Amino acid sequence: MAAQGKLRLGVNIDHVATLRNARGSAWPDPLRAALLAEAAGADGITAHLREDRRHIRDADIVALKAGIGIPLNFECAATDEMHRIALATRPHAICLVPERREERTTEGGLDVAGDEARLAAYIAPLRDAGIRVSMFIGHDPRQIEASARIGAAVVELHTGLYSELHAEGRQDEAQAELEALRRAATHAHGLGLEVHAGHGLTFDNVAPVAAFPEVMELNIGHFLIGEAVFMGLGPAIEEMRRRMDAARVA
């Protein structure tokens, strides 16, 4: 049976930190953005602490954990350094992602199936600490099944390719990618995993993904921070929330 309930919105505030770091100043403050997002109806805040600290920094994670009243989703690579930080910070959730220093943004899903033994050992202490562990993966059934085997609570499906195809007007290919994501959501839910989705989602492409009954949370960042330049962060989040809810009802 498909999952039911309100579709949650996690707001990624990484690129508030990108703007701050461009001038090497204290402004704009990612915590202030997170609090605005919370006031606008966000259900959680996502922040990716990268190895190169190109946007979010260690002090931001500490400030976010202490300052917000909604769950913190700590995105990071599966490194020893990030493991120590996660255990020290104890966020609500940790989402493990692949990471390359050269990439502009996360390029694909994590290869859980190819690193199963290490990842199983990696996430066990996090689970024991009460942290919900999510694996950021593509729609390959092997990655979903491996995520279930290692004891992850959540999989977050990478919607980046769907979003790119949609933006380029390649509608047949976008629809095929959407169907693959739909099958993946059903498969993951059937294995007892909670299903999230995110990457590249916008006002224009969010509805079909929001309509998947198995998906319980969307994580959206870059588009919302960009749209905030024109309409303000609160109104941008409220409009995304409205479109997600409308798609869910439909």
What's the level 1 CATH class? Answer: Alpha Beta
CATH superfamily: Aldolase class I
**Strand content bin:** 15-25%
In total, how many domains does the architecture comprise?
A: 1
CATH architecture type: Alpha-Beta Barrel
Strand order of the largest sheet: 1-2-3-4-5-6-7-8
Would you count the extended β strands for me?
8
The structural class is: alpha/beta
Query: Counting H and I runs of at least 4 residues, what is the number of helices?
Result: 11
The CATH topology name reads TIM Barrel
Order of helices and strands: EHHEHEHEHEHEHHEHEHH
Profile the largest sheet. 8 strands, parallel, barrel
Question: Any idea what the radius of gyration is?
Answer: 17 Å
Mean pLDDT: 95
**Whole-Å distance between the termini?**
18 Å
Task: Report low-confidence residues grouped into runs of 5 or more.
Answer: none
Choose one word for the global shape: globular
Helix content: 40-55%
Question: Keyphrases for this structure?
Answer:
250 residues; alpha/beta; TIM Barrel; 8-stranded parallel β-barrel; 11 helices; globular
Word description of this protein:
By secondary structure, this protein is of the alpha/beta class. It has a single domain (8-249), classed as TIM Barrel (Alpha-Beta Barrel). 49% of the residues lie in helices and 16% in strands. The chain has eleven helices and eight strands. It has helices at 14-23, 30-39, 58-67, 80-89, 116-128, 141-150, 160-167, 171-190, 206-210, 222-231, 233-249, and strands at residues 8-12, 44-48, 72-76, 93-96, 132-137, 154-158, 194-198, 215-220. Strands 1-2-3-4-5-6-7-8 form an eight-stranded parallel beta barrel, surrounded by six helices. α9 links the parallel β7 (194-198) and β8. α7 (160-167) runs antiparallel to α8 (171-190). The longest helix is centred in the C-terminal third of the chain and has 20 residues, at 171-190. The chain starts with 7 loop residues before the first strand and ends with a helix.
